[in-house]
Amino acid sequence: MAIRVLLVDDQPLLRTGFRMILEAEQDIAVVGEAGDGLQALDQVRALQPDVVLMDIRMPRMDGVEATRQITGPGRDGPAKVLVLTTFDLDEYVVEALRAGASGFLLKDAPAQELVQAIRVVAAGEAMLAPSITRRLLDKYAGHLPSGEEPVPDALGTLTEREVEVLKLVARGLSNAEIAADLFVSETTVKTHVGHVLTKLGLRDRVQAAVYAYESGLVRPGAQ
């Protein structure tokens, strides 16, 4: 079945461009468009998309609040949100990740990168563009704790190897990179990531990365 995508952006020209790119793919179907967050909520309820391509800065309701309502408790469907941002790393992206976005992409990314990002998010993966994620978390370290706060008890449920994996996820490494770093297989890494998400009650790798920073397990800028 085709991946059902809802386009949310207050610029009609951009929505048209995204639609042309996505409709050229056999496994992706653009099911609707919205020009602001309120319209997006209505469209998500009516159309039940798999992925919402979400701009952040929009009138009436911005992409952060719309993401929170789409992915939060009592949500109407399984839609995942892929946030669009500008090259300068929008200051609201951290809030969008906390709100429940499954990843983010630069607006000027190549067409094939956009297509692949939607496929990755739809498949339940997240943490797009790891290097950008790492730079963003470092850049907006002011939003995050100093690292002097007490470590949450939940971290005590993780094994030593799972803590290692969580730290590497927070640094923005892909499964392949983590596997190489720890001298294990990618399948083993996926298993560890799954255990981390389950034990900490997290939805995906994006939440895991933010959790690692917010808990003080990883300090912004640390390697």
TrEMBL record:
<feature type="domain" description="Response regulatory">
    <location>
        <begin position="4"/>
        <end position="122"/>
    </location>
</feature>
<dbReference type="InterPro" id="IPR058245">
    <property type="entry name" value="NreC/VraR/RcsB-like_REC"/>
</dbReference>
<feature type="modified residue" description="4-aspartylphosphate">
    <location>
        <position position="55"/>
    </location>
</feature>
<dbReference type="InterPro" id="IPR011006">
    <property type="entry name" value="CheY-like_superfamily"/>
</dbReference>
<dbReference type="InterPro" id="IPR001789">
    <property type="entry name" value="Sig_transdc_resp-reg_receiver"/>
</dbReference>
<protein>
    <submittedName>
        <fullName>Response regulator transcription factor</fullName>
    </submittedName>
</protein>
<dbReference type="InterPro" id="IPR016032">
    <property type="entry name" value="Sig_transdc_resp-reg_C-effctor"/>
</dbReference>
<dbReference type="InterPro" id="IPR039420">
    <property type="entry name" value="WalR-like"/>
</dbReference>
<feature type="domain" description="HTH luxR-type">
    <location>
        <begin position="151"/>
        <end position="216"/>
    </location>
</feature>
<dbReference type="InterPro" id="IPR000792">
    <property type="entry name" value="Tscrpt_reg_LuxR_C"/>
</dbReference>
<keyword id="KW-0804">Transcription</keyword>
<keyword id="KW-0597">Phosphoprotein</keyword>
<keyword id="KW-0805">Transcription regulation</keyword>
<dbReference type="Pfam" id="PF00196">
    <property type="entry name" value="GerE"/>
</dbReference>
<dbReference type="Pfam" id="PF00072">
    <property type="entry name" value="Response_reg"/>
</dbReference>
<keyword id="KW-0238">DNA-binding</keyword>
